[in-house]
Specification:
Layout lengths: L5 H7 L6 E2 L9 E2 L2 H26 L3 H18 L8 E3 L4 H8 L10 H25 L2 H6 L2 H22 L4 H20 L8 H19 L9 H5 L15 H7 L2 H20 L7 H18 L4 E3 L1 H10 L5 H14 L2 H8 L3 H25 L7 H15 L4 E3 L2 E3 L1 H24 L1
Parallel strand pairs: 1-2
Antiparallel strand pairs: 3-4, 5-6
Length: about 450
């Protein structure tokens, strides 16, 4: 298959012409019938919804705003990559730990310091954009050398482990909350393993629904816990403007949150490689654009009160299952998300999810983040017989899990930043200077 390049775009026009194809593998520049496009686009909305909604809740952000800007960000991505890279941009979990640390968020209700977090997310987007421009100018080789799989996996695992105490605390208020949280975990596991067809791809959202219903039965119905209050849900209108928030720029928050850009680069790189492998064509020529699009989408989202965004593995999974890679599906899914963002009723429903249910979801999601490191290491055949790899990973995991904090006067780096920069710097030292000496 041919690789779409800048010259191809000039010959074909900036965007593809999306030739109609109704069976077999549907490539990015092809499309289904409009009816099938709508149904398939809605499927991508469902796939992204669980994580895109849960992430802002864990940080105290408005889920309506987060969903709206996930749609806006996806359209930005669609335009910048010329409609040739299929991807959906949703709330990034990489920001959760640093946002909680920067704002002191208690874990329930709106985050009173959300504007401070937004300033840090803008900082991460700017750093991300600088990296993207360098990649567009010089290629991706230096990124792969700076962040090989051993380092990337270590940082991803450190993020998941750093978040673990937050998840456990959310289900530990009393015995009832603990059992509801564990029941939610069990529902997610059963759906992921035993549910039929498409339902198996929706464990998070079905776990949230199942946990919600259980809580309602035992709390509202049988009086075992604090009843769910539906007052705000009943009062919310079906249509209305979301609650936008502007960022406040504080140096300590920016320095704490900005390093997440490194994780976003690694995520986007992995996703571009995965989609390229699935479609049978290299998309490396679009990597710089993809990184820049994601950085711009993150900045735009943070300027209005949304979370930082990233390309979503959930939607890549849907593509792998359906063999439909048409980029038009993502333009439609983004439009639906923007419309949902303008429904206060939708946001009020999400905000009514009980705390222990969110805690159960967090246990699974944060654990999956940490476990994703194992997948990175296995798929890339990382050699743990190498002392450099082993020590780099060991130090990063301990720094992240223990929230090792470094202070330089008024400047503070939390466990995520320490693990990220520590892994990158330590790996380079162990594989270059000392390696040459021993040789």
């Amino acid at each position: 298959m041919t690789i779409a390049t800048g010259s191809d775009e000039q010959a074909q026009g900036y965007f593809p012409r999306w030739k109609l194809k109704t069976s077999g593998v549907i490539m990015p520049e092809e499309r289904l019938s409009w009816g099938q496009t709508i149904v398939s686009g809605l499927q991508h909305c469902v796939a992204m919804s669980g994580a895109t909604i849960i992430a802002p809740l864990l940080m105290g952000f408005d889920p309506n705003v987060a969903v709206l800007f996930s749609g806006v960000g996806t359209l930005i991505f669609f335009v910048i990559v010329a409609g040739r890279v299929p991807s959906y941009l949703g709330s990034s979990f990489a920001f959760i730990a640093v946002v909680i640390a920067a704002t002191g968020y208690a874990g329930q209700g709106p985050n009173p310091n959300i504007s401070v977090a937004l300033g840090g997310i803008v900082g991460a987007g700017v750093l991300y954009g600088v990296i993207a421009l360098i990649v567009m100018w010089s290629g991706v080789g230096w990124v792969e050398r700076l962040m090989p799989p051993a380092v990337t996996g270590a940082v991803v695992a450190a993020i998941g482990l750093n978040l673990a105490p937050v998840a456990v605390k959310a289900v530990s208020a009393n015995a009832f909350d603990t059992w509801i949280g564990l029941a939610t975990v069990l529902i997610i596991g059963v759906v992921a393993v035993a549910a039929p067809g498409l339902w198996r791809r929706l464990p998070i959202i079905l776990g949230a629904v199942g946990g919600y219903l259980l809580y309602f039965l035992f709390a509202n119905g049988l009086g075992f816990g604090k009843p769910i209050d539906f007052t705000q849900l009943s009062a919310a209108s079906w249509l209305g403007l979301p609650k936008f928030t502007t960022p406040t720029f504080r140096a300590d928050a920016i320095f704490l949150i900005a390093p997440v850009a490194v994780i976003l680069v690694a995520e986007n790189l992995g996703h571009i490689k995965a989609v390229g492998a699935m479609t049978g064509r290299s998309l490396d020529s679009y990597l710089g654009r993809a990184l820049f699009a994601d950085s711009l989408a993150t900045i735009v989202a943070a300027c209005g009160g949304g979370t930082g965004v990233t390309t979503y593995a959930e939607n890549i999974g849907v593509m792998a299952a359906t063999k439909v890679y048409s980029t038009l599906l993502f333009a439609f899914a983004a439009t639906v998300s923007i419309l949902l963002g303008f429904s206060p009723k939708f946001g009020a429903l999400i905000l009514s999810i009980p705390g222990p249910v969110i805690g159960g979801l967090s246990i699974v999601l944060f654990g999956l983040i940490a476990a994703m490191a194992g997948r990175i290491w296995v798929e890339n055949k990382v050699d743990f017989a190498s002392p450099a790899n082993l020590i780099t990973v060991a130090v990063a995991l301990t720094a992240g899990a223990g929230d090792l904090t470094l202070k330089f006067g008024a400047f503070t780096i939390g466990g995520i930043g320490t693990a990220t920069f520590g892994a990158i710097i330590l790996y380079q030292i162990l594989t270059s200077t000392l390696a040459r000496r021993s040789g």
